[in-house]
Structure formats: C-alpha cells, structure tokens
Amino acid sequence: MKRPTVAALSLVGLALAACGTPAAPPPPQPSAPSASADTGLDRMERLTLAANRCWFKSGDAAFSPYSLAPELSSFSGRPRFLLVPRGRPEARPLLVVEGRSGSGEVSVYGPLMGEAVGRRAAADVDRWSRGSGSCSIA
C-alpha cells in the first residue's frame, strides 16, 4: 500500500475546501448622505425656520393675526407647516405649506391664497425653496 504524498493530501484539502459554502460577500456599507442631498423634511425644516424668522419673529404686521403650526413629523411623507388663527392652533388651517419626500416640490394652498397675504406667502416660500434666505424680495 502506497503512502499518500504531500501533493495528494494538498489536492484533497483543496477539493474539500471547494465543497464548503462560499464566503458571504461583505455587507454593503450604508452611504453617507451627500451634503447636497435634500429630503422633504430637510427642505420643510428650512422653510419653517425662514417663515418663523421672517413672518413672526420680525413682527411683520401682515402675519400678526396668525400663528405658525409646524407638522414636520409626518408619516405620509408630506411634512408641512400651517398658518392658523393666532391663539387657536386647533382651528382649521388658513394656509398649508407642504413638501414631499423625494421631490423638490412644495405646495402652498388654503383659503388665504385668495388674499394678498397668501400670495405674498407663496412668493416667499418659492424664493426660500430656490435657496434665498432673505425675508424680502429686494
């Protein structure tokens, strides 16, 4: 009876190793969001802060009859903020500014759109959506 050689044992070892389960590929690494990534929530947070700063903290008389009601935690993928009558957060919204996750679209609608303050609010939101941080058109 012949004794197995080292070469034969190496071949048997390689064959057995080939029969084993292949190593799983490494799990994909989550990619960090780029600095230019913009989600609906990010955009609506910026718009809400701009509206609060420009319309309310500035003391703008056109917006004094209203309060800002942020609703940014939305499970519908549509974060928004509302203008409601001052001191009545439960009241029906007079103006809705609503974003959409995965889209640059921002909708502005509600009963105030038929009034000058609503048209001004829509123009401000449009300007802020395009990257301006200024409170006035000029």
Can you walk me through this structure?
It is a single chain. The chain has 138 residues and is of the alpha+beta class. Helices cover 33% and strands 15% of the residues. The chain has a domain of 80 residues. The termini are far apart.
Brief summary:
With 138 residues, the chain is α+β, with helices and mostly antiparallel strands. The chain is 33% helix and 15% strand. The longest helix has 18 residues, at 40-57.
Question: Which terms would index this structure?
Answer:
138 residues, alpha+beta, four-stranded antiparallel β-sheet, 3 helices, 4 strands, 33% helix
> Fraction of residues in helices?
25-40%
- Which term fits the overall shape? globular
Query: Which residue ranges are poorly predicted, with pLDDT under 50 across at least 5 consecutive positions?
Result: 27-36
Order of helices and strands: HHEEEEH
* Rg for CA atoms: 30 Å
Main β-sheet, in a few words? 4 strands, antiparallel
User: Mean pLDDT, rounded to whole units?
Assistant: 79
N-to-C CA distance: 100 Å
